[in-house]
Amino acid sequence: MRNDQSGIALILALFSLLFVSLLVVALVDTITIDQQISTNHIKDMQAGFLADAGVEYAVYKLKDDNAYDTDDNSDGDVYPDDPDDYDTVTLETGSCKVGIPVGATLPKTVTCTGSAGSFNRSVQAVIKGSGSSVQVDTWHELEEGV
Amino acid sequence: MKDLYSWIRRSRTGHKAGGGFTTLEIVLVVGLFALIVTTVVPLFKNLVGTWEAQDQKLEAVQISRVGLDKMIRELKTATAFTTAESDKVEFKDWDDDDIEYELVTGVLTRNGDAMAGSFDSLQFTYYDSDGNETTDALCVYSVKVTMAVSDAEYKLSEPVTFTSRATMRKDPTGSFALAITEINYNPPDFPKGKKKTVAERKVEWIEVYNYGNTEIDMEDWTIEDLNDSDKIKKAVGTFIVPAGGYGLIAAKNHEVDSHYTVDPGAARLELNDQAIGDELDDAGDTLTIKDADGRTVDTVTYAGSWSTKGNTIERIDPESDPSEETNWEASDVHLTYTPGDENTV
Predict the structure, then answer these.
(1) Per the CB < 8 Å rule, is A91 touching B299?
(2) How many CB atoms lie within 10 A of CB A89?
(3) Which of B22, B47, B167 sits opposite A60 (nearest CB)?
(4) Could you report the per-residue pLDDT of A45-92, keeping only the tens digit for each?
(5) A with B: how many residue pairs have Cβ under 8 Å apart?
(6) Is the predicted pLDDT of residue A1 greater than 50, yes or no?
């Protein structure tokens, strides 16, 4: 009987070590996922702010000149068919692609895609008004980035 | 496992003492526990600490986001900036209330009250109407805000930064309470000799009104239409438009006085060009008045349909949106022309 019990303490100790190790591994896993979630969340927020900044850029440009557009006249394509037909606004956390259609007067529908890392968020806003009196009429987020 | 048992048994046979555990067993077990206590437990604690820090960071990020959101929203409603510093902004909102945002020892404050924290930095960048960075509060049209959420408290290696931008919905009027209140863009055909008529550019005029409490010196101010810009270089007497007073702006060598009766109290101002802009377009034009430093004071975009030939347009309220037709009314100049005097509407 005594022979059968021999080494039981060591076995128990080894199992508890295994248990603690598993716990640590699980925790590391949880924390890693948590970290990814929060990093993604932050990038997403940053992209959202960048998209908003793009709308403000459009308001700024259109206030100055109602006829402003981001169309690149040098090629045959007309906005929004050409990827060059966007203004890129660069800020500290990323950049925003702003598309303003051709037209002499408002309202205009602008599309702004903020990019922070691999995260994109797009908003579409209708800017109305005339002269330097310009407002955002409607605003909505697009499902996919441009 | 079988090998382990036999190994332990073998080691046991070497001992005559009949205790529950062999010495080797006890040494191994104590050693293992020592290993757990010295390495795994601190690691565990460390991980839990990181987890909590992560949580706190996220909370700090959320608070910052709310702070930035509110600030951006308010900046959009600004009507005039009074302070434009890199870590402090002061402006008047839509309701003419003074709003101040500042970073005080890592905490974002609004009118002195703590709103969100903590931040490593808060940076405002200001842009004027031409897209250039500016530090002149009166020129500010758009503001970029960059803030870095402080990581000092949470000991995280990578600080989180947010940037966004706000453009004022209303044009900054600078410090000048001056408005274009009447435009004579489509004057009648005044006869000249038997067959000819007087050129429109000679009898076009703009009336401005000082609705503030201080006099305004309009020397070197600029009048722009869509195609040309001219400066106010000549005045009859003085360039000063008194508080509550009117000014009348006409082109060089104008003949306004031969055809209109101008109120003698109005400041009489002349441009350095033979026409206002490239002559005010009868079909519609954008007229902008800028101060001596190039800041827009008032701007009007009118359509030709707002009035008919021979009539002027008069602004109902000098502080209303100048580009809305409802804020203007056509005036029959033959009967009630009012250059330089209180408007009839």
Answers:
(1) no
(2) 21
(3) B167
(4) 999 999 999 999 999 889 888 888 888 777 777 777 777 788 999 988
(5) 140
(6) no
